[in-house]
Every structure is written in C-alpha cells, then in structure tokens.
Amino acid sequence: MVNRTETAGKKAAFGLNEEGIEAKAFPCDVSRKEDVETMVEAVEETLGPVDILVNSAGINIRKKALEFDPAEWNQILDINLKGTFLTCQTVGRRMVERRSGHIVNISSVAAFIGLTDRAPYCASKGGVSQLTKVLAIEWATSGVTVNAIGPGYVRTPLITELLKDSAFQKTIDTQVPMKRIAETEDLQGILLVLCSKAGAYITGQTIYVDGGWSIW
Ligand SMILES: NC(=O)c1ccc[n+]([C@@H]2O[C@H](COP(=O)([O-])OP(=O)(O)OC[C@H]3O[C@@H](n4cnc5c(N)ncnc54)[C@H](O)[C@@H]3O)[C@@H](O)[C@H]2O)c1
Q1: Where in the sequence is the domain holding 104, given as residue range(s)?
Q2: Which of 97, 146, 149, 215 has the most crowded CB, counting CB atoms within 10 A?
C-alpha cells in the first residue's frame, strides 16, 4: 500500500497485519514523478511485479467556483488527476511489457454529474474517467485492462465534516434513490470483478457505485 507519509503507511499496514493480511507500506507523493518511480521500483523489488494497481489517492476542497485560488486548483488536479496519470504511466509501462495487469482508478459520481462547490474536484474526476478510456484503448491488445469506479458518498475520513452536518442525511434522502451513503464494503464486489478474470472483457468503463444517484 502506498501512502503520502511513512507513519500513515506503517499504521495502515500494521492494521491489516493485525487482521492476518500481509501488507507493506511504501511512502510516495503521487503528484511527484520521481516519488512514483522510486516507489514502483521499491514495490517490485520487494514484492515482485504489480498485477493490480488501484489509484485511490484523492483530496477535495469545497467552496464556490468564484472563490477558488489557482494554487488550490493545482493542488487538487495535481493529486487527483496528474497523480493518477503518473502511477498509471509508471506501472502501466511495466504491465504492458509483461502483457498482463488490471488498473482501477477511483473516480467519483462527480465525474458524471455536476456538484456545486466542487469545481476542481469534478473537473479532476471527469479527467480521471476520460484518462481511463484513453489508457484502456491504448493498452487494449496488451493484456491490460483499465477501468474506474465512480462512488457516491462513502463513509471515509474524506467526508468526516459532512457526516457531522445534521442536514446531510436530508441531502442523501433527496439525491440518492437508495437513501443511504455507501460503506467501503459496497465497493468490494465491483473491485474484485475488475481485477479478476470475471472482468476480463471490461475495459475503459467507469462503473458508478452510487445507490442510483447518477441515474436521476
Ligand atoms: N469518501 C467519499 O465519499 C468518496 C466519494 C467518491 C470518490 N471518492 C474518492 O475515493 C478516493 C479515496 O478517498 P477516501 O474517501 O478514502 O478519502 P481519504 O481522505 O480517507 O483517503 C484519501 C487518501 O489519499 C491520500 N493522499 C492524498 N494526497 C496524496 C498524495 N499526494 N500522494 C499519496 N497519497 C495521497 C491520503 O493520505 C489518504 O490516505 C479518492 O480519490 C476520493 O476522491 C471518495
């Protein structure tokens, strides 16, 4: 697993080890090409070839489009979109050489619908879904599938502040047909399909796991 800081990575790996799952931490800022290259080399040297890459690093800042500073725009796009491109490019190059691999990019329902107060986030996730299509086409005959998952709200630290807001459940009731947010377990099934033989003929897709939000 890859985390921005060594401490966070070690903590997450330790948690998985406690559950009997073998995990190692590799620190990396995905928006920095040198970091990504060093990390991928270290991963393959320690664990062997990467068969599955899941790009999940992402951030969000909420405010009106008129109030965004260009530095904030760059920060979000650098991590969410450029970071996804850099890891796809670095790991994908090796997968293409080996003619085998599955890449899953964590996009968002925000790639498909417009959400107020999230201009750079929506733009970055729209970019992730489009990037996914292009890589899928370029690597389609090289044994590498590239797909994306587009979650609605998922109970993670990213939405801690929203969960504290008493009006939040009302938003969910009016926007999400299933009237609930996702638990991380809700994403597991499709992730397994996209990373296994069951999904061998699926590439370039963004699969929305959003309780029906994007169909309204
Ligand atoms: N939680 C939701 O409601 C939700 C909904 C749709 C999409 N997503 C997407 O799911 C993905 C995972 O988000 P989450 O909900 O688990 O949030 P999270 O904040 O819990 O996790 C995001 C992770 O990205 C890491 N990260 C941030 N910048 C990084 C960098 N420069 N280099 C390496 N790692 C970095 C953080 O350290 C953190 O571990 C994100 O791409 C997010 O946009 C989340």
Answers
A1: 52-215
A2: 146
Q: What is the pLDDT of residue 189?
A: 98
Residue 55 CA to ligand 1 center (angstroms) comes to 9
121 belongs to the catalytic site: yes
The pLDDT of residue 63? 97
Choosing from 156, 172, 187 the residue with most ligand 1 atoms within 8 A of its CB, the one to mutate for a pocket test is 156
Q: Does the residue 38 lie in any domain?
A: no
Q: Give tens-digit pLDDT for 45-56.
A: 999 999 999 999
Instruction: For residue 20, tell me if it sits in a domain.
Output: no
In a domain, 175, yes or no: yes
Our count of domains for the chain comes to 1
Q: Look at ligand 1, atom 35, and give the residue with the nearest C-alpha.
A: 57
Instruction: Give the pLDDT confidence of 100-119 residue by residue, as tens digits.
Output: 999 999 999 999 999 999 99
Give the residue-averaged pLDDT of 135-143: 98
CATH number of 101's domain:
3.40.50.720
Atom from ligand 1 closest to the CA of residue 57 = 24
Whole-angstrom distance, CA of residue 45 vs CA of residue 170: 49
What is the DSSP track for 119-156?
HHHHHHHHHHHHHHHHHHHHTTTTTEEEEEEEES-BSS
